[in-house]
Amino acid sequence: MNAAIAKPCGPGRPKDLEKRAAILDAAKRLFPLSGFEGTSMDAIAAEAGVSKLTVYSHFTDKETLFFAAIRARCEEQMPATLFEIDVEGPVRRQLEAIARAFFALVTAPESIALHRLLNSGTGMSEKLVQMFWEAGPQRVQCGFQQFLRHEVEAGQLVIGDIPRASSQFFALLKGELHARLMCGCSGPFTEQDIETHIRATVEFFLRAYAVNPERVVAL
C-alpha cells in the first residue's frame, strides 16, 4: 500500500479548522455589538478561546476577518444552492424560499445592529463599507441575478433589466417591516406577519415579470 495514502491526517488539521470556525463565530458576534473599531483582535481571541497569534495565523488582519465574518454569516443563511433553479418546480415556490432566507438574514438582531452601525458611520471607513457590500449584499444580488437569468432562459420569467429587477425584489422584501426594526419602533413580528409579507412581495414581483401575469395567482 502506498505509504503516503495510508498515512492518516495529522492531528493538528481538524483542530485548526475548529479554531478557524471558533474565530469566525466570535467575530460574527462581536462586530455587530461593538463595531469595527470597538472590536479588538484580543477580544475576538478571548471570545474564541484561542490566542491572538492564532487569530492572525488564520486572518492576516482585522479587515480580512471582518470581510470573512460578513461573508460567512451571509453564506450560512443564503448558501449558493439556494439560487439553483428547479426546472420541475414552480418559480413562485423558489422565489418564496429565497425571500424567506433573505428576510431572516436582514432582520436578525446581529444584522440590524450592524446596519445601524453602517448607517451611523461610527468607526466605518469607506473601505469597510465597500467590504461589507462585497461580502454580503453584492454576493446575494449576484446569486439572485444568476437565478433570474436561468428562469428567463427557461421561459418562466420575462425580464428586460435583470439587475434592476433583482434590486426591486430585495427592496420590496425589506419594506416597512425592516424599516421599523431599524428605527427600533417595532417588536418581533409574528410568523404570520412575515409569511403574509413574503407572499405578497413574491406575488407583486411575479405580476411584473411572469410570462403570464394574469395567471400568476395559480402559479
Automatic annotation (TrEMBL):
- Superkingdom: Bacteria
Q: Which InterPro entries match?
A: Homeodomain-like_sf, HTH-type_TetR-like_transc_reg, HTH_TetR, Tet_transcr_reg_TetR-rel_C_sf, TetR_C_Proteobacteria
Q: Which PROSITE patterns match?
A: HTH_TETR_2
The Swiss-Prot or TrEMBL record annotates one GO molecular function as: transcription cis-regulatory region binding
Keyword Transcription regulation attached: yes
Binding region for DNA: 40-59
Q: Where is the HTH tetR-type domain?
A: 17-77
What keywords would UniProt list here? DNA-binding, Transcription, Transcription regulation
- What is the protein name for this chain? TetR family transcriptional regulator
* Keyword Transcription regulation part of the UniProt annotation: yes
Q: What is any Pfam family matched here?
A: TetR_N
